[in-house]
Amino acid sequence: MKILYFDCFSGVSGNMILGALIAAGVDPESLKRDLKKLELPDFDLVAERTKRSGIAGIHVSVSVPDEKKHRHLPEIERIIDSGDLQTSVKERAKKIFRRLASAEASVHGVTVEKVHFHEVGALDAIVDIVGSSIAIEMIKPDMIISSAINVGSGSINIDHGYFPVPPPAVVELARQVPIFSDGPEAELATPTGMAIITTLTNSYGPLPKIKLESIGYGAGTKDLNGFPNVLRVLSGECRTSEVEEKIEHLVLLESNIDDLSPQVLGLIMDRAFAAGALDCWFTPVQMKKNRPAVAVSILSKPQDEIILRDLLYKETTTIGIRRSVVERHSLGRSVIEVETDFGSIRVKKAILKGETVNLHPEFEDVRRAAEISGADFTAIAEEAVRKAAGSK
Fold first, then answer.
1. Would you say residue 207 has pLDDT above 70?
2. How far apart are CA 43 and CA 32, in angstroms?
3. Fewest CB within 10 A of the end CB: N or C in the chain?
4. Which CATH number fits the domain 332-390, given the four candidates 1.10.730.10, 3.10.20.300, 3.40.47.10, 3.40.50.1110?
Protein backbone atom coordinates (compact mmCIF):
# COMPACT_ATOMS: atom_id res chain seq x y z
CA MET A 1 0.00 0.00 0.00
CA LYS A 2 1.41 3.40 -1.00
CA ILE A 3 1.23 5.95 1.82
CA LEU A 4 1.59 9.72 1.45
CA TYR A 5 2.26 11.41 4.79
CA PHE A 6 2.03 15.18 5.37
CA ASP A 7 4.14 16.27 8.34
CA CYS A 8 2.64 19.68 9.21
CA PHE A 9 5.00 20.56 12.08
CA SER A 10 5.31 24.10 10.66
CA GLY A 11 1.82 24.55 9.31
CA VAL A 12 0.49 24.26 5.79
CA SER A 13 -0.29 26.47 2.81
CA GLY A 14 -1.22 25.92 -0.81
CA ASN A 15 2.22 26.66 -2.22
CA MET A 16 3.91 24.61 0.52
CA ILE A 17 1.83 21.59 -0.51
CA LEU A 18 2.73 22.08 -4.17
CA GLY A 19 6.40 22.59 -3.33
CA ALA A 20 6.56 19.50 -1.14
CA LEU A 21 4.89 17.30 -3.77
CA ILE A 22 7.28 18.57 -6.45
CA ALA A 23 10.25 17.96 -4.15
CA ALA A 24 8.90 14.44 -3.56
CA GLY A 25 8.99 13.65 -7.26
CA VAL A 26 6.16 15.34 -9.17
CA ASP A 27 7.44 16.76 -12.46
CA PRO A 28 6.84 20.55 -12.40
CA GLU A 29 6.73 20.82 -16.21
CA SER A 30 4.01 18.18 -16.47
CA LEU A 31 2.15 19.98 -13.71
CA LYS A 32 2.37 23.28 -15.60
CA ARG A 33 1.15 21.70 -18.84
CA ASP A 34 -1.95 20.37 -17.12
CA LEU A 35 -2.62 23.66 -15.33
CA LYS A 36 -2.45 25.50 -18.65
CA LYS A 37 -5.53 23.52 -19.73
CA LEU A 38 -7.64 25.75 -17.47
CA GLU A 39 -9.44 28.75 -18.94
CA LEU A 40 -7.48 31.30 -16.91
CA PRO A 41 -5.62 34.53 -17.68
CA ASP A 42 -1.97 33.93 -18.43
CA PHE A 43 0.00 32.85 -15.37
CA ASP A 44 3.31 31.23 -14.58
CA LEU A 45 4.23 28.70 -11.93
CA VAL A 46 7.83 28.93 -10.72
CA ALA A 47 9.39 26.18 -8.57
CA GLU A 48 12.73 27.23 -7.08
CA ARG A 49 15.12 25.54 -4.67
CA THR A 50 15.64 27.53 -1.50
CA LYS A 51 16.37 27.10 2.22
CA ARG A 52 14.39 27.80 5.36
CA SER A 53 16.45 27.69 8.57
CA GLY A 54 19.03 25.54 6.82
CA ILE A 55 16.55 23.02 5.33
CA ALA A 56 16.55 22.80 1.53
CA GLY A 57 13.16 22.69 -0.13
CA ILE A 58 11.08 23.83 -3.09
CA HIS A 59 9.32 27.18 -2.97
CA VAL A 60 6.48 27.57 -5.45
CA SER A 61 5.32 31.01 -6.53
CA VAL A 62 2.49 31.82 -8.91
CA SER A 63 2.83 34.87 -11.14
CA VAL A 64 -0.66 36.10 -12.08
CA PRO A 65 -2.19 39.25 -13.58
CA ASP A 66 -3.30 41.90 -11.10
CA GLU A 67 -7.04 41.22 -11.15
CA LYS A 68 -9.63 43.29 -9.31
CA LYS A 69 -12.58 40.92 -9.82
CA HIS A 70 -13.98 38.54 -7.22
CA ARG A 71 -14.91 35.07 -8.33
CA HIS A 72 -17.77 33.11 -6.81
CA LEU A 73 -17.79 29.34 -6.38
CA PRO A 74 -20.03 28.60 -9.43
CA GLU A 75 -17.61 30.44 -11.72
CA ILE A 76 -14.62 28.59 -10.27
CA GLU A 77 -16.36 25.25 -10.76
CA ARG A 78 -17.10 26.24 -14.37
CA ILE A 79 -13.40 27.02 -14.91
CA ILE A 80 -12.41 23.64 -13.49
CA ASP A 81 -15.03 21.75 -15.53
CA SER A 82 -14.00 23.49 -18.75
CA GLY A 83 -10.37 22.32 -18.46
CA ASP A 84 -9.25 19.20 -20.32
CA LEU A 85 -8.36 17.39 -17.10
CA GLN A 86 -9.14 13.94 -15.73
CA THR A 87 -12.55 13.66 -14.09
CA SER A 88 -10.96 12.60 -10.79
CA VAL A 89 -8.80 15.74 -10.79
CA LYS A 90 -11.79 17.98 -11.43
CA GLU A 91 -13.90 16.37 -8.71
CA ARG A 92 -11.05 16.54 -6.20
CA ALA A 93 -10.42 20.24 -6.92
CA LYS A 94 -14.13 21.13 -6.74
CA LYS A 95 -14.47 19.27 -3.45
CA ILE A 96 -11.60 21.35 -1.99
CA PHE A 97 -13.17 24.59 -3.21
CA ARG A 98 -16.58 23.64 -1.82
CA ARG A 99 -15.02 22.94 1.55
CA LEU A 100 -13.19 26.28 1.50
CA ALA A 101 -16.31 28.18 0.42
CA SER A 102 -18.43 26.39 3.03
CA ALA A 103 -16.04 27.45 5.80
CA GLU A 104 -16.14 31.10 4.69
CA ALA A 105 -19.92 30.98 4.36
CA SER A 106 -20.24 29.65 7.90
CA VAL A 107 -17.92 32.35 9.27
CA HIS A 108 -19.79 35.20 7.55
CA GLY A 109 -23.32 33.83 7.91
CA VAL A 110 -24.10 33.71 4.18
CA THR A 111 -24.80 30.97 1.64
CA VAL A 112 -21.97 29.32 -0.25
CA GLU A 113 -23.17 30.91 -3.52
CA LYS A 114 -22.83 34.41 -2.04
CA VAL A 115 -19.28 33.94 -0.82
CA HIS A 116 -16.90 36.27 -2.64
CA PHE A 117 -13.49 36.69 -1.17
CA HIS A 118 -9.87 36.85 -2.17
CA GLU A 119 -8.97 33.38 -0.94
CA VAL A 120 -11.38 31.64 -3.31
CA GLY A 121 -11.32 34.20 -6.11
CA ALA A 122 -7.57 34.73 -6.39
CA LEU A 123 -5.89 33.06 -9.33
CA ASP A 124 -3.05 31.72 -7.21
CA ALA A 125 -5.54 29.87 -4.99
CA ILE A 126 -7.05 28.24 -8.10
CA VAL A 127 -3.58 27.21 -9.26
CA ASP A 128 -2.65 25.87 -5.79
CA ILE A 129 -5.81 23.81 -5.42
CA VAL A 130 -6.06 22.44 -8.95
CA GLY A 131 -2.28 21.92 -9.00
CA SER A 132 -2.42 19.89 -5.79
CA SER A 133 -5.25 17.80 -7.25
CA ILE A 134 -3.18 17.09 -10.36
CA ALA A 135 -0.09 16.24 -8.29
CA ILE A 136 -2.04 13.73 -6.17
CA GLU A 137 -3.30 12.10 -9.35
CA MET A 138 0.31 11.76 -10.54
CA ILE A 139 1.45 10.15 -7.27
CA LYS A 140 -1.64 7.91 -6.91
CA PRO A 141 -1.33 7.12 -3.18
CA ASP A 142 -3.57 4.45 -1.69
CA MET A 143 -3.86 6.42 1.55
CA ILE A 144 -3.07 9.99 2.65
CA ILE A 145 -2.29 10.62 6.32
CA SER A 146 -1.51 13.90 8.06
CA SER A 147 0.09 14.77 11.36
CA ALA A 148 -1.54 17.27 13.70
CA ILE A 149 -1.32 20.73 12.11
CA ASN A 150 0.64 23.62 13.62
CA VAL A 151 -1.59 26.69 13.16
CA GLY A 152 0.76 29.30 14.66
CA SER A 153 -0.07 32.06 17.14
CA GLY A 154 -0.23 35.82 17.59
CA SER A 155 -2.42 38.19 15.56
CA ILE A 156 -2.60 39.24 11.90
CA ASN A 157 -4.30 41.81 9.70
CA ILE A 158 -6.87 40.34 7.31
CA ASP A 159 -9.57 41.94 5.10
CA HIS A 160 -11.98 42.22 8.03
CA GLY A 161 -9.57 43.66 10.60
CA TYR A 162 -6.99 42.58 13.19
CA PHE A 163 -7.63 38.97 14.17
CA PRO A 164 -5.98 36.36 16.38
CA VAL A 165 -4.19 33.39 14.83
CA PRO A 166 -5.63 31.07 13.65
CA PRO A 167 -8.10 33.31 11.75
CA PRO A 168 -11.82 32.39 11.61
CA ALA A 169 -11.76 30.45 8.30
CA VAL A 170 -8.86 28.28 9.48
CA VAL A 171 -10.68 27.55 12.75
CA GLU A 172 -13.78 26.50 10.80
CA LEU A 173 -11.72 24.23 8.54
CA ALA A 174 -10.07 22.68 11.61
CA ARG A 175 -13.29 21.14 12.96
CA GLN A 176 -12.56 17.57 14.10
CA VAL A 177 -8.93 17.97 12.97
CA PRO A 178 -5.99 17.76 15.43
CA ILE A 179 -4.24 21.14 15.61
CA PHE A 180 -1.70 22.78 17.92
CA SER A 181 0.20 26.05 18.37
CA ASP A 182 3.98 26.15 18.55
CA GLY A 183 6.91 28.26 17.44
CA PRO A 184 6.98 31.92 16.42
CA GLU A 185 4.03 34.30 16.50
CA ALA A 186 2.89 33.92 12.89
CA GLU A 187 0.07 32.51 10.77
CA LEU A 188 1.38 29.06 9.86
CA ALA A 189 -1.80 27.51 8.41
CA THR A 190 -3.65 29.34 5.62
CA PRO A 191 -7.28 28.74 4.58
CA THR A 192 -6.22 27.36 1.18
CA GLY A 193 -3.68 25.01 2.76
CA MET A 194 -6.17 23.82 5.38
CA ALA A 195 -8.86 23.24 2.77
CA ILE A 196 -6.50 21.13 0.66
CA ILE A 197 -5.04 19.07 3.50
CA THR A 198 -8.35 18.40 5.28
CA THR A 199 -10.02 17.34 2.03
CA LEU A 200 -7.24 15.05 0.83
CA THR A 201 -6.44 13.39 4.16
CA ASN A 202 -7.92 9.97 4.98
CA SER A 203 -6.80 10.02 8.62
CA TYR A 204 -4.64 11.89 11.14
CA GLY A 205 -1.96 10.54 13.41
CA PRO A 206 1.69 9.54 13.66
CA LEU A 207 3.67 8.20 10.73
CA PRO A 208 2.90 4.48 10.26
CA LYS A 209 5.63 1.94 9.57
CA ILE A 210 6.61 2.47 5.95
CA LYS A 211 9.48 1.63 3.64
CA LEU A 212 10.48 5.22 2.87
CA GLU A 213 10.87 5.96 -0.83
CA SER A 214 10.79 9.74 -1.22
CA ILE A 215 11.00 12.88 0.91
CA GLY A 216 9.97 16.38 -0.09
CA TYR A 217 10.12 19.74 1.64
CA GLY A 218 7.84 22.56 0.53
CA ALA A 219 9.11 25.96 1.63
CA GLY A 220 6.76 28.65 2.88
CA THR A 221 7.12 32.21 1.62
CA LYS A 222 8.23 33.62 4.97
CA ASP A 223 11.70 32.89 6.34
CA LEU A 224 11.01 32.61 10.06
CA ASN A 225 14.20 33.18 11.99
CA GLY A 226 15.29 30.00 13.76
CA PHE A 227 12.15 28.08 12.78
CA PRO A 228 12.01 25.91 9.63
CA ASN A 229 8.98 27.17 7.70
CA VAL A 230 8.58 24.00 5.62
CA LEU A 231 6.03 21.25 5.03
CA ARG A 232 7.49 17.76 4.88
CA VAL A 233 5.98 15.03 2.71
CA LEU A 234 7.02 11.39 3.11
CA SER A 235 6.06 8.68 0.65
CA GLY A 236 6.56 4.95 0.91
CA GLU A 237 5.15 1.46 0.95
CA CYS A 238 3.33 0.23 4.02
CA ARG A 239 2.42 -3.36 4.80
CA THR A 240 -1.35 -3.62 4.65
CA SER A 241 -1.30 -5.37 8.02
CA GLU A 242 0.03 -2.17 9.58
CA VAL A 243 -3.13 -0.26 8.66
CA GLU A 244 -5.56 -3.12 8.29
CA GLU A 245 -8.29 -2.53 10.87
CA LYS A 246 -9.57 0.93 11.60
CA ILE A 247 -12.22 2.41 13.86
CA GLU A 248 -13.55 5.83 12.84
CA HIS A 249 -16.07 8.17 14.40
CA LEU A 250 -18.28 9.45 11.61
CA VAL A 251 -21.39 11.64 11.34
CA LEU A 252 -24.74 10.31 10.12
CA LEU A 253 -27.24 12.88 8.79
CA GLU A 254 -30.83 11.74 8.22
CA SER A 255 -34.13 13.29 7.20
CA ASN A 256 -37.56 11.89 6.23
CA ILE A 257 -39.00 13.50 3.09
CA ASP A 258 -42.51 12.94 1.66
CA ASP A 259 -42.89 15.76 -0.89
CA LEU A 260 -39.92 15.59 -3.26
CA SER A 261 -39.61 14.15 -6.76
CA PRO A 262 -37.57 10.92 -7.08
CA GLN A 263 -35.64 12.64 -9.88
CA VAL A 264 -34.45 15.28 -7.42
CA LEU A 265 -33.55 12.61 -4.88
CA GLY A 266 -31.28 10.96 -7.45
CA LEU A 267 -29.54 14.29 -7.97
CA ILE A 268 -29.10 14.68 -4.20
CA MET A 269 -27.21 11.38 -4.04
CA ASP A 270 -24.90 12.42 -6.90
CA ARG A 271 -24.15 15.76 -5.27
CA ALA A 272 -23.65 14.22 -1.84
CA PHE A 273 -20.93 11.91 -3.15
CA ALA A 274 -19.33 14.79 -5.08
CA ALA A 275 -19.26 16.83 -1.84
CA GLY A 276 -17.43 14.12 0.08
CA ALA A 277 -20.12 11.77 1.44
CA LEU A 278 -18.72 8.37 2.39
CA ASP A 279 -22.10 6.79 1.69
CA CYS A 280 -25.64 7.84 0.85
CA TRP A 281 -28.80 5.73 0.77
CA PHE A 282 -32.57 5.96 0.66
CA THR A 283 -34.99 3.94 2.80
CA PRO A 284 -38.79 3.73 2.24
CA VAL A 285 -40.62 4.86 5.40
CA GLN A 286 -44.18 5.64 6.49
CA MET A 287 -44.84 9.09 7.95
CA LYS A 288 -47.80 10.64 9.72
CA LYS A 289 -51.20 10.62 7.96
CA ASN A 290 -50.06 7.35 6.29
CA ARG A 291 -47.84 9.17 3.82
CA PRO A 292 -45.19 7.07 2.07
CA ALA A 293 -41.85 8.83 2.27
CA VAL A 294 -38.10 8.37 1.84
CA ALA A 295 -35.51 8.56 4.61
CA VAL A 296 -32.36 10.17 3.20
CA SER A 297 -29.20 9.08 5.01
CA ILE A 298 -25.73 10.53 4.44
CA LEU A 299 -22.59 9.23 6.15
CA SER A 300 -19.65 11.63 6.27
CA LYS A 301 -16.37 12.51 7.87
CA PRO A 302 -16.82 15.18 10.59
CA GLN A 303 -14.97 17.78 8.52
CA ASP A 304 -17.46 17.37 5.65
CA GLU A 305 -20.59 17.56 7.81
CA ILE A 306 -21.44 21.22 7.31
CA ILE A 307 -21.33 21.22 3.53
CA LEU A 308 -23.46 18.04 3.39
CA ARG A 309 -25.95 19.39 5.90
CA ASP A 310 -26.28 22.58 3.84
CA LEU A 311 -26.78 20.47 0.72
CA LEU A 312 -29.80 18.76 2.30
CA TYR A 313 -31.32 22.06 3.38
CA LYS A 314 -30.82 23.74 0.01
CA GLU A 315 -31.69 20.90 -2.35
CA THR A 316 -34.56 19.19 -0.48
CA THR A 317 -37.74 20.31 1.24
CA THR A 318 -36.58 19.28 4.71
CA ILE A 319 -36.59 21.77 7.57
CA GLY A 320 -34.91 19.47 10.09
CA ILE A 321 -32.05 16.96 10.07
CA ARG A 322 -31.24 14.26 12.60
CA ARG A 323 -27.56 14.05 13.47
CA SER A 324 -25.75 11.23 15.23
CA VAL A 325 -22.13 10.16 15.69
CA VAL A 326 -21.52 6.56 14.65
CA GLU A 327 -18.52 4.29 15.01
CA ARG A 328 -17.37 2.44 11.89
CA HIS A 329 -14.99 -0.50 11.88
CA SER A 330 -13.35 -1.21 8.53
CA LEU A 331 -10.73 -3.54 7.13
CA GLY A 332 -7.45 -2.44 5.67
CA ARG A 333 -7.32 -2.29 1.93
CA SER A 334 -4.88 -1.90 -0.90
CA VAL A 335 -5.13 -1.64 -4.67
CA ILE A 336 -3.10 -3.79 -7.02
CA GLU A 337 -2.95 -3.59 -10.81
CA VAL A 338 -3.08 -6.83 -12.79
CA GLU A 339 -2.54 -7.48 -16.48
CA THR A 340 -5.33 -9.47 -18.15
CA ASP A 341 -6.06 -10.48 -21.74
CA PHE A 342 -8.31 -7.41 -21.83
CA GLY A 343 -5.81 -4.90 -20.50
CA SER A 344 -4.78 -3.55 -17.11
CA ILE A 345 -7.39 -3.85 -14.32
CA ARG A 346 -7.15 -2.47 -10.78
CA VAL A 347 -8.34 -4.78 -8.02
CA LYS A 348 -9.13 -3.83 -4.41
CA LYS A 349 -7.87 -6.18 -1.69
CA ALA A 350 -9.48 -6.27 1.77
CA ILE A 351 -7.17 -7.46 4.58
CA LEU A 352 -8.08 -9.12 7.89
CA LYS A 353 -5.25 -10.09 10.26
CA GLY A 354 -2.78 -10.09 7.40
CA GLU A 355 -4.91 -12.31 5.16
CA THR A 356 -6.76 -11.31 1.99
CA VAL A 357 -10.48 -11.86 2.58
CA ASN A 358 -11.95 -10.09 -0.45
CA LEU A 359 -10.91 -9.17 -3.99
CA HIS A 360 -13.01 -6.78 -6.04
CA PRO A 361 -12.11 -5.36 -9.48
CA GLU A 362 -12.64 -1.65 -10.15
CA PHE A 363 -15.94 -1.32 -11.99
CA GLU A 364 -14.80 1.47 -14.33
CA ASP A 365 -11.71 -0.49 -15.40
CA VAL A 366 -13.77 -3.57 -16.19
CA ARG A 367 -16.44 -1.58 -18.01
CA ARG A 368 -13.84 0.18 -20.14
CA ALA A 369 -12.20 -3.13 -21.01
CA ALA A 370 -15.59 -4.63 -21.90
CA GLU A 371 -16.47 -1.71 -24.16
CA ILE A 372 -13.13 -1.89 -25.99
CA SER A 373 -12.92 -5.68 -26.35
CA GLY A 374 -16.59 -6.59 -26.66
CA ALA A 375 -16.06 -9.37 -24.08
CA ASP A 376 -18.50 -10.13 -21.27
CA PHE A 377 -18.17 -7.90 -18.21
CA THR A 378 -18.35 -10.92 -15.90
CA ALA A 379 -15.61 -12.79 -17.75
CA ILE A 380 -13.23 -9.84 -17.50
CA ALA A 381 -13.99 -9.33 -13.78
CA GLU A 382 -13.43 -13.01 -13.03
CA GLU A 383 -10.07 -13.07 -14.81
CA ALA A 384 -8.93 -9.96 -12.94
CA VAL A 385 -9.81 -11.60 -9.62
CA ARG A 386 -7.96 -14.79 -10.57
CA LYS A 387 -4.86 -12.82 -11.50
CA ALA A 388 -5.06 -10.78 -8.29
CA ALA A 389 -5.45 -13.93 -6.18
CA GLY A 390 -2.25 -15.35 -7.68
CA SER A 391 -0.21 -12.17 -7.17
CA LYS A 392 1.91 -11.47 -4.09
1. yes
2. 10
3. C
4. 3.10.20.300
